[in-house]
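Weekly structure sync, notes
Attendees: PL (lead), two postdocs, one rotation student
Agenda item 3: pending single-chain targets
PL asked that the sequence for the first pending target be pasted directly into the notes so everyone works from the same version. It is reproduced below exactly as submitted, 251 residues in total.
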Amino acid sequence: MAPSNPCTNPNIPPIHIELSHIPCNESHAQYVNGVLVVKAYWRQATNMTLEDQVEYKTLIEQQRFEKQGPSMLFSAPSDHSVYKSCQASPTWAKYVFIRALGVGTPALDSQVEGIFGSLNISDFEQCYRAYNPEPARVLKRRAESQLLQRSNDFSQWDIFPAAVQTLPDEGDLRELEDRLKEYMDDHLNRIQKIILPFAMKQKEGLERVTRQMFTVIDKMNQLEKEQTECFDAIETKIDCLNARPVDMGEI
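Predicted structure, written out during the meeting:
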């Protein structure tokens, strides 16, 4: 079956990729390119097959968003290694990846459109976040940034009543609290559904093995007792034979 856009068989839930998965530090000269391709993945993850998602994750892990050369800019499509790969073997993952970096040509667009039926890269980040909520630290950092921005706006205004309108109201704080609670509840549910049953299964297995070990020990003790009694009987018989003349019939 020919591939298509929108994808008819997306992998749900999508593979989890966040900014923390970028394999270079924020101080790296081309970290910004990593951010571009990760954000593009958020928009298109739920429009990708499992193969596309795995390929996209591999491209990020291999830092294929970097340009090999003296300039950070992609002055020509050939500057980027994934472009030629997409030309030779087009996939939706490669196309979204290079388009996030501003790499492309009308010829490649025509080739990809002929395969997938559309070049539309829609924004489905909200769908992605339904399965992979933003990390709590990101929400916290964003809230702090918004508060700082509003504080700066407040300090630049001369009219106090107008500035008051820009401060976060109770509804904003409640929305942030609800999102944080939703994030924590989601992780607690995962712990209850996956980790706890696994731990209980491990505990039951350990208890079963312990019971089996005690059973084996009991059987060994019983065997040792019977063996001792047998040896004692043999020794008693020998003592009796030594105490009187030997009757060959008894032997």
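Discussion points:
- The chain has a mean pLDDT of 82.
- Residues 136-168 form one domain.
Action: rotation student to compare against the earlier draft before next sync.
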